[in-house]
DNA sequence: ATGTCGTACTCCGTACGA
């Protein structure tokens, strides 16, 4: 019989200097599965033993030196692990696990989409061109009807697709993460693949919803100039099983925080 | 509104990515 579990996704912005924050999340929310992005270290330097002591004895890591990198920490065993490359760059931006939930299993894809630099013009900015190519490859991969498996996509997609996913739609239309070419591409991938935006199913438009606040703000909470860059997508079979979504805004105020906060989903059986 | 972070090398300051 399948059991319920909780799943968190969090861009940790260097896992080695924020192991204490992962410990705090484990103490306060105890997610069964934790998907991390921007671990910024190769697998050999990943602080596995710290997390093993927290009960995360199952760990799947795709890391590289200095930049990017993703990992899944889990109290549920993995039936499978997979890593996918994008844009032939050798970047560590994806890892998938199938968690054994006691039933047929749930496939979880953990993604870190390129940020895209500052200038939203692919002819002038290679990083933006890379982001658009990455989205093209995502479309070819998961932008078709989903396979007959229970699947979830989470991670830092570095795009705030909806008007109410940013503090000012009008002021951010020309800012990378909210430009029409990016938001249209991401929504086309999601809807084309039949993926359900689980965060918005639980916290609907027009409520403002953010998961990231820049470090370059004197008072991030008072200014509240956030963006929803982190996402939880569920395939049609899993969407009705997502019983709750929580954005842990308080984590942005923790000591030496990441600029992203965890998003936690409860998946019922 | 060019602001604050983290990482790596150029290695105690600078360059880069975000």
How would you characterize this protein structure?
Belongs to the DNA repair enzymes AP/ExoA family. Pfam families: Exo_endo_phos. It comes from Prosthecodimorpha staleyi. The protein has 269 residues and is of the alpha+beta class. Helices cover 22% and strands 25% of the residues. The chain contains 7 helices and 14 strands. Strands 3-4-2-1-14-13 form a 6-stranded mixed beta sheet. The chain has a 6-stranded mixed beta sheet with strand order 5-6-7-8-12-9. Strands 10-11 form a two-stranded antiparallel ribbon. A hairpin with a 7-residue loop joins strand 3 and strand 4. Helix 3 packs parallel to helix 5. The chain is globular and about 50 Å long. The N and C termini lie close together (8 Å). The structure holds one DNA strand of 18 nucleotides.
Topology:
Elements: E1 5-11, H1 19-29, E2 33-37, H2 48-53, E3 58-62, E4 70-74, E5 78-82, E6 94-99, E7 106-112, H3 126-142, E8 151-156, H4 169-172, H5 180-192, E9 196-197, H6 198-202, E10 212-213, H7 220-223, E11 226-227, E12 230-234, E13 242-247, E14 263-267
Parallel strand pairs: 1-2, 7-8
Antiparallel strand pairs: 1-14, 2-4, 3-4, 5-6, 6-7, 8-12, 9-12, 10-11, 13-14
Helix pairs in contact: 3-5
The protein binds one DNA strand of 18 nucleotides through residues 13-14, 17, 38, 40-41, 65-67, 115-118, 127, 158, 214-218, 256, 259.
